[in-house]
Amino acid sequence: METITLFTFAPTPGQKCKIQIIQMSIILSLLLTCLPVAQAQSYVSAPNEKSPQINLDKLTKKAGSGDIQAQLQLGFAYQFGKGVAQNFNEAIRWYRMAANSGDPSAQNNLGYLYQMGPEGIRNLEEAGRWFMRGAVDGNPAAQLNLGLFYLRGARTNQSKDDAIYWIQRAVDAEDRRAMTVLGYLYSVGMGVAKDPIKAFKLAQKAATKNDPGGQALLGTLYAIGMGVSKDAGQAVNWYRKAMDAGDASAQYGLGTMYEVGQGVARDEQEALRLYRLAAEHGSVDAQQALGQIYEFGQGTGVDSGAAAKWYQMAAEQGSPVSATRLGTMLFDGDGIVRNISEAVKWWSFAAERGNSESQLRLAEMYWKGLSVPRDLAKAYSLLTSAAKSRDVSKELNEVASEMNRK
Question: Helices marked H in 117-175 — which ranges?
């Protein structure tokens, strides 16, 4: 079997790596606390009808006779399979009837389905159009969704100011989810100037209105002392409140507190349990943390197969760090089957998202023609990208010299 040695940039197993993970974990939890922004989640407006049981024949008859609330309720039932078999096309049909009659909740939900629905239904132009109609008609969920829609660049002709305008409109309407989103944006300076005080106030208001995302965000702000004095006890308190509502970022955040022993007695097994719970609920940070824990045997035995599994789950959700580690494991074949082409695929994925370690690894492969066709221009381009965050002047000069000799 061919032996290939690349630059060594992998974390050092053991205590040094563990300390690095601990120092980074709480900061990472902040970046994914606001799941609507991080994972492109939009919000649905629920009908006023609270009963989980529906009389389908009666409801269909009312909806067919023009009852807007019945149309909204029927669309909701078909969208989520409540009392009927889930059917997105039927949901759209009934939502459209109510939306065309001017119901802003139906307009929002129609936008949601066009944005988040499966292939064949997804249509971003239609999503934006219906979010706008609902937003203009005063639906806070539509205002928030439209703001997020613009913030993610779904409509390239809309500025970040347009995004913040509509999110602020939803906040002004006392929408607790919008408060969480805007608080998150102020905490990281996305679309607005970074303002820890505003972030804290918005998170606090959303939390007191029992928004799980707001409670998780508030817990993180207390954990890292952003906009408020650092208070591990308060962080744990708010994480627990959000956990009770099933918030994955709170599960991950509380896991970090158990790992470092802040606000709670240090307990690696409880941290591992919470990370796994959060990971199963979709937390990218938790999936990445589990990958690192199993790769290096931190608080548990080394399990390369489990590490690769969790890294891949996080990578598939867009994590460049996890993609880099997965690529490294596949390249080295350490505990898993070696697969160079898959390693290159994941390093390329991470490199495109700015990960300098993957950029460096790929650069050397193209520079030296290791399992890929030799390409000095591509190597130089990758090194130039990596130079934004690492000193690679020596490698750049060497590649440039080789290019000049050709």
Answer: 124-136, 140-151, 160-172
**First CA to last CA distance, the chain:** 31
Match 């158990």 to its residue by tokens.
258
Find where tokens 């070696």 sit: 338
| In the predicted structure, residue 296 carries a pLDDT above the cut 80 | yes
Alpha carbons 108 and 86: distance in angstroms, whole number? 19
DSSP states along 336-382: S---HHHHHHHHHHHHHTT-HHHHHHHHHHHHHTSSS---HHHHHHH
Q: From CA 333, how far away is CA 381, in angstroms rounded?
A: 27
Integer Cα distance of 273 and 353 in angstroms: 30
Cβ neighbours for 383, distance < 8 A, ≥ 6 positions apart:
359, 360, 363, 392, 395, 396, 399
Taken in order 375, 376, 377, 381, is the CA torsion positive or negative?
A: positive
Q: Cα(35)–Cα(400) distance, rounded to whole angstroms?
A: 43
Please check the confidence at residue 50 and state whether its pLDDT lies above 90.
no
CB-neighbour burial class of residue 270 (10 A; exposed 0-12, middle 13-18, buried 19+): middle
Q: Residues 43, 44, 45, 49: is their CA dihedral positive or negative?
A: negative
Sorted by where each starts, the structural domains of the chain and their CATH numbers stand as 34-173 (1.25.40.10), 355-406 (no CATH)
Q: Could you tell me the two tokens for 147?
A: 């703001």
The answer to whether the beta carbons of residues 139 and 158 sit under 8 Å apart is: no
pLDDT over 50 at 28, yes or no: no
| pLDDT tens digit sequence for 83-94 | 899 999 999 999
User: Which amino acid is residue 42, in one-letter code?
Assistant: S
Residues 56-75 pLDDT 10s = 899 999 999 999 999 999 99
Which residues have CB under 8 Å from 349's CB, separation 6+? 315, 320, 323, 358
Digit-coded pLDDT (tens) for 225-261: 999 999 999 999 999 999 999 999 999 999 999 999 9
Residue 110 contacts residue 122 (beta carbons within 8 Å): no
Q: Which amino acid belongs to residue 43?
A: Y
Q: So what's the pLDDT on residue 405?
A: 84
> Which pTM was predicted?
0.79
Give the span between the Cα atoms of 278 and 1, in whole angstroms.
Answer: 39
